[in-house]
């Protein structure tokens, strides 16, 4: 009788549980698209969208009322929110790790070259030299809850780190709701947990770095399998322009003031957070292949895949632990 009671009780208990299914939410944010797949008994898109909008109001340089935009204009009384503080402190750490190859204060240079939130300038060596005085994370800090600039002309660009953190924010929210299986993707930056609807690790494609600003010839170079990891890719094959027969890429070296020019076409980083993957991927595109390998091998729980131009052919180079994500 006890066994029968236990069986009946168990059946009733599980029958009362809401049925879970995989939801797919999508839209546009930060000037790009997002896609979120997760297993849940409820659709959480409205709250996710509200969260993304709040994040945008903190760190979007394309929103003139955002916290980062107001800080860039040196407005009085701007109080950085938790989103801004987290990105800023992480950026400081990555700047130190990369010896300045990653630097949020690159904004004046990015704008001058036509890749930022202000109108492109008539670039000369004199202009670049004059702008370099405003570049360097040592020129700005958060002190007693307020942003303090040592030089008024310092401006921040969160484009190489904020999108990754937006992914982490959504992923953290889903985790807080008890969601055990999800994939969050915003503009190619990804965070994963658990498994996909087929019960396997999440399959994430890494694009072949074809010069294709309109994304008309997209091809997959390889596929990685993730569960619990985050990923970001940086490259110079989508955002660039040609002038007088020369290619100008959107990756600006904060140390020289000029767009990078080397054989590293794309850098994909797998890390514990999408924010870190985003920042490290950008740093790698600045420093090139050799220094990137040295950087990644020196950081715990970070792996990388680099695609280079090898005499006109694509060549893929992996960090020592990357092969665990290839199946």
UniProtKB/TrEMBL annotation:
It is an enzyme of class 2 (transferase). Mg(2+) binds at residues 160, 278, 282. InterPro entries: ApbE, ApbE-like_sf. Pfam families: ApbE (PF02424). GO terms for molecular function: metal ion binding; transferase activity. Belongs to the ApbE family. This is FAD:protein FMN transferase. It comes from Natronoflexus pectinivorans.
């Amino acid at each position: 009788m006890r066994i029968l009671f236990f069986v009946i009780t168990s059946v009733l208990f599980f029958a009362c549980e809401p049925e879970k299914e995989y939801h797919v939410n999508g839209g546009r944010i930060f000037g790009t698209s997002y896609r979120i797949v997760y297993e849940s008994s409820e659709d959480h898109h409205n709250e996710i969208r509200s969260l993304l909008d709040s994040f945008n109001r903190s760190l979007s340089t394309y929103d003139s009322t955002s916290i980062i935009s107001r800080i860039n204009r040196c407005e009085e009384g701007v109080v950085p929110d938790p989103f801004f503080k987290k990105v800023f402190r992480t950026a400081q750490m990555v700047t130190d790790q990369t010896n300045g190859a990653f630097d949020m204060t690159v904004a004046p240079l990015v704008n001058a070259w036509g890749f930022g939130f202000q109108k492109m300038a008539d670039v000369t060596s004199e202009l670049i030299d004059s702008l370099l005085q405003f570049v360097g994370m040592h020129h700005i800090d958060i002190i007693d809850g307020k942003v303090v600039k040592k030089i008024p002309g310092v401006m921040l660009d969160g484009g190489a780190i904020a999108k990754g953190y937006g992914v982490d924010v959504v992923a953290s929210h889903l985790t807080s709701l008890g969601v055990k299986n999800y994939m969050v993707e915003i503009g190619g930056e990804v965070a994963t947990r658990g498994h996909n609807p087929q019960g396997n690790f999440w399959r994430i494609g890494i694009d072949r770095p074809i010069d294709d600003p309109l994304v008309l010839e997209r091809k997959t170079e390889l596929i990685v399998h993730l569960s619990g990891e985050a990923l970001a890719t940086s490259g110079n094959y989508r955002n660039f322009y040609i002038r007088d027969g020369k290619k100008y890429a959107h990756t600006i070296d904060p140390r020289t003031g000029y767009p990078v020019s080397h054989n590293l076409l794309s850098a994909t980083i797998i890390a514990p957070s999408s924010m870190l993957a985003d920042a490290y991927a950008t740093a790698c595109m600045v420093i090139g292949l050799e220094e990137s390998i040295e950087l990644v091998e020196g950081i715990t729980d970070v792996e990388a895949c680099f695609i280079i131009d090898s005499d006109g052919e694509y060549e893929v180079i992996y960090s020592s632990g990357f092969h665990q994500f290839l199946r």
